[in-house]
Amino acid sequence: MRRAPCSRSSHAAWRLAAPLLLLAGGCLKYTTDEFPLSVGFTPLEPLVPEATWPAATATDPHPQALGPIVPGPRIGHNTAHARAFVHASLATVYEALKDPATSHIHPAQGDWTVVSTGAEPFPVSFVIHYRDWSSPFTVSWDVTYRAGPLEGTEAAPTVVGLRYQKTHGIKNIYVQEGSLEAREVDAGVTSLEFVAWLQATNTDQGTVEGTVQDMFDNMVAKLAAMAAPASP
């Protein structure tokens, strides 16, 4: 994994406070965080009942929408839970999850690069390296993603899971993990269940809820792009 030198960057999505990022000699401290293979791509935790499905409409029992984003159980970090529907088959959703753009985090001022694919023994595996320079000091970190069938087979999944975790980078992102569980609930309709955890300098509940909103928006945008007719 790449390490940022004593330079400029920050993860704007987490609003890291520059004074707290400084260590001896003005350098930023980086850590490596264990992401056990044994957890695979299983959900982080069960969703709370308050994370309800989008309300049915007069014409659609499963509208393409994100339900209320609510706090989950909190033990030392902010959490967000939400349920959603998208108008696409589970196979299509699974294909969308294979694109890192579908689940990447949004730095407000920065960039992201896929630095590794297939590094772990899972059907889908990639590492994204993030940089953000919205604070006086550039910070960077890596998030490892994995996905695959929770039920069924790779060729014919019936439940798909995705899980991610920060595995290396700026120390002040103490906890950054999330999961998604997807299953087809009707012909051409897939349900999504999101869990996100976050603890970082100067973050709050709104920040982790924004992560869930971004992941849903990413999925909708990717599905729309996949459904668009090819250019002649």
What is the CA-CA span between the terminal residues?
Answer: 40 Å
Helical residue percent? 10-25%
Order of helices and strands: HEEEHEEEEEEH
Tally of alpha and pi helices: 3
Q: Strand-residue fraction?
A: 35-45%
Mean pLDDT over the residues = 87
Give Rg in angstroms: 18 Å
Coarse shape: globular
The number of strands is 9
Strand count, sense and barrel status of the largest sheet are: 9 strands, antiparallel
Task: Return residue spans where pLDDT drops below 50 for at least 5 consecutive residues.
Answer: 1-26
* Structural class by helix and strand composition: alpha+beta
Topology at a glance:
Layout: H1 18-21, E1 30-32, E2 65-66, E3 78-86, H2 90-97, E4 110-117, E5 124-132, E6 139-152, E7 157-170, E8 173-186, E9 189-200, H3 205-227
Task: Note the main attributes of this structure.
232 residues, alpha+beta, nine-stranded antiparallel beta sheet, 3 helices, 9 strands, globular, disordered N terminus
